[in-house]
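Quick one, T. Sequence first:
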Amino acid sequence: MYTLNAYERETIVNFDEGSDEATIYTFNAVLIRKCRQFVENFPECGHLEAVRPDGGHEFVIKKNRLSINLLRPKTEKEIEALRERAKKIFERGNHDQ
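C-alpha cells:
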C-alpha cells in the first residue's frame, strides 16, 4: 500500500454559509485527539464521520463550536517580560528543592 508523505497528510477544515456544520479532515495526531475527546464529551456537538485506511480522520462539528484564532506576533518588550517571568518562576522552583 502507498504511504502518504508529510505534504500529502493534510488538514482540511471545510464549511459553507448554508450549513450549521463544519467538516474537519486531518492526519494530525494532536487534532485527532482533541476532536475525539470533544465528540466523546459533547456528542450533541459533533461526531467522528470516518477513519480512512490511510489514517485520515473526518469529524463533523457544529460550526458554532469551532473557532479559528489568529495570534498577533509578540513585541520584543512582551517577549522580554515573558523571559523574566519564566526566570523568576524557574529560580523560585529551584530554591524549593
